[in-house]
Amino acid sequence: MMTSQTQNPFYLAEMTWPQIEDYLKNKDSILLPVGSTEQHGPTGLLGIDFLTAFDISMAVSQKTKTLVGPVLPFGMALHHMAFPGTLTLTPTTYIKVLVELIESLQKHGFKKVWVINGHGGNIAPITTAFCEFLNFDQKMDLQLINWWHLEEVTLYEKEVFADQNGFHATCGEISTTMYTHEEVYKRNPQIKLQEPGAKKTTWPLSPLEFRKHFPDGRMASLPSLANAHHGKIIFDKAVDSIVRKIHK
Ligand SMILES: [Zn+2]
């Protein structure tokens, strides 16, 4: 999706600089999707957090005619490093990357940045990056949206998955990508998980402690309950909810 062409005329990667200059004559906001590349249990895709952030942001962008930047696919996922395929930045690096991206946007004249986040481990560093940035530019309007925390999303997930939604490799995020990446799940091996993953523990954990406590990577979730039908409902709720916030 990210390297093939899209249908979105507001996707920065498929625009030219004069188009961005024109956009800035009337509008000063941009969506910045951020995620992570990390294990999502034995059935979830490593890209879930950035794929959801990107796809949701693209839909919001088209509905609100708001510019959307390319997705940042790497985040703070140190605790998932005992699982192959996870790619992480350290918190300090990630904060710096965010501050410098926001600084780039500010220099072009953007005044409002909606960071659309798909990963829990990013929340603390994003908040810190906002504080760092606002320390030298108090006028910048920085908004963080953790899409899976949106009220409409959590209410629906609670209703259909109850406690088995879990905290990582959740039924909600796996359902969402089963909707957006249906063919990918079909070609992956089908593993039927019978029991939810281990319960939450004290935090933070080192990579080895994490794998010891959550041997297959899931945190209290039972992704076998996930499906594309729920995924579409969750996706639409997340998009509509963000659109409402932008129009407020
Ligand atoms: Zn995730």
Descriptive overview:
The protein is α/β, with parallel strands linked by helices and 248 residues long. It has a single domain, classed as Creatininase (Rossmann fold, 3-Layer(aba) Sandwich). The chain contains 9 helices and 4 strands. A 4-stranded parallel β-sheet has the order 2-1-3-4, sandwiched between helices. Strand 3, helix 4 and strand 4 form a beta-alpha-beta unit. Helix 3 crosses helix 4. The longest helix is centred in the last third of the chain and has 20 residues. It is globular. The structure holds zinc ion (ZN). The site of zinc ion (ZN) has 5 residues, from helix 2.
And the CATH topology? Rossmann fold
Would you count the extended β strands for me?
4
Shape annotation: globular
Poorly predicted residue ranges: none
Reading side by side through the largest sheet, how are the strands ordered?
2-1-3-4
Average predicted confidence as pLDDT = 96
Say what oligomer this is.
single chain
Number of domains: 1
Keywords summarizing the entry:
248 residues, alpha/beta, Rossmann fold, four-stranded parallel β-sheet, 9 helices, globular, binds zinc ion
Tell me the layout of helices and strands:
Elements: H1 17-26, E1 29-34, H2 48-64, E2 67-68, H3 91-108, E3 112-117, H4 123-136, E4 141-146, H5 151-161, H6 171-180, H7 182-187, H8 207-213, H9 228-247
Helix pairs in contact: 2-6, 2-9, 3-4, 5-9, 6-9
The protein binds zinc ion (ZN).
